[in-house]
Amino acid sequence: MGRLDGKIIMITGGGAGIGRAAALLCAQEGARVAIAEFRPELAEATAAAIAAAGGEALALPTDVAEERSVAAAIAAAVARFGGLDVLYNNAGGATGRDGKITELPLDEFWRTIKVDLFGTFLACRLAMPHLVARGGGAIINTTSVRALIGTAGADAYTAAKGGVLALTRALALQWAEHGIRVNAIAPGLVLSERVRGLVDPGSALYRRSALGPAEPADVAHLAVYLASDEARRVTGTVLPVDSGLGALLA
Ligand SMILES: NC(=O)c1ccc[n+]([C@@H]2O[C@H](COP(=O)([O-])OP(=O)(O)OC[C@H]3O[C@@H](n4cnc5c(N)ncnc54)[C@H](O)[C@@H]3O)[C@@H](O)[C@H]2O)c1
């Protein structure tokens, strides 16, 4: 028996990195998985990998920053699977254009606010009626260790992820009466392919990850727990997977 048997999960950004690892693991645990991903070929590849392993998945080319796109993806997932139990807002990530507040391009601020914060806001807003209709459910948001401790060098992204954290707590309180749990995961340094290309092994974040940098699957395991009924009394929390970074830098 899987830990997510019978559950229907939508994962944004499920085509790569943490989102792909979570999609595969959720399917392995019995969930049917909708992959709302910007790059259609990556969405298809994740769905194909799930199908090849005997699971059920739906690839949905989606831009989380666009209302119509998110609404269409949620509608398609509900039409195919019959409802929605879990929304995992994973799409996002810092880019090499971010930096010091006095130097980073202003359009990079709006890009990350639009994808990481507004994208999360939108998907929560549009999924909520479906979770209510199922009599409860779970939302997993993605913040970052950067929203919990002071780190230099990604000021736009840090601001966006701080907003995600605050939103998570507010939604948890407001929607508990409907049986909807809302939590956030705060990854530290996770070696997705994107991050491997960005991070210097000599950097402070790398060197100070006490157990070494995490792999995408390390975060996916926490997502499975938060999506499952094992976490039925867990809401409004932020759970780091940070290899000790928070303890070292706090
Ligand atoms: N990797 C890390 O070290 C780290 C640390 C802290 C937080 N995080 C967060 O974890 C999440 C996943 O990170 P990752 O390293 O696995 O990233 P990644 O780049 O490997 O994967 C992100 C996926 O999201 C998709 N995506 C991007 N914009 C999108 C959009 N507008 N709509 C739909 N899909 C979109 C990408 O195509 C990609 O497939 C992000 O929110 C990131 O901020 C990651």
Characterization of the model:
The chain is of the alpha/beta class. The protein has a single domain, classed as NAD(P)-binding Rossmann-like Domain (Rossmann fold), CATH 3.40.50.720. It is built from nine helices and seven strands. The relative contact order is 0.15. The model has no long low-confidence stretch (mean pLDDT about 95).
Features:
globular; 15% strand; binds nicotinamide-adenine-dinucleotide; 9 helices; alpha/beta; 250 residues; 7 strands; 7-stranded parallel β-sheet; Rossmann fold; single chain
Topology, please?
Blueprint: E1 8-12, H1 17-28, E2 32-37, H2 40-52, E3 56-61, H3 67-81, E4 86-88, H4 106-133, E5 137-142, H5 155-175, E6 180-187, H6 193-198, H7 204-207, H8 216-227, E7 238-241, H9 245-249
Parallel strand pairs: 1-2, 1-4, 2-3, 4-5, 5-6, 6-7
The structure holds nicotinamide-adenine-dinucleotide.
Overall pLDDT confidence:
97
Number of helices: 9
Small molecules bound: nicotinamide-adenine-dinucleotide
Strand order of the largest sheet: 3-2-1-4-5-6-7
Helix content: 40-55%
CATH architecture: 3-Layer(aba) Sandwich
Secondary-structure element pattern, one letter each:
EHEHEHEHEHEHHHEH
Instruction: Note the quaternary state here.
Output: single chain
**SS-derived structural category:** alpha/beta
* CATH class category name: Alpha Beta
Outline type? globular
Strand content: 15-25%
Task: Give the count of structural domains.
Answer: 1
Query: What Rg do the Cα atoms give?
Result: 17 Å
CATH topology: the name is Rossmann fold
Number-wise, the strands total 7
Largest sheet: 7 strands, parallel
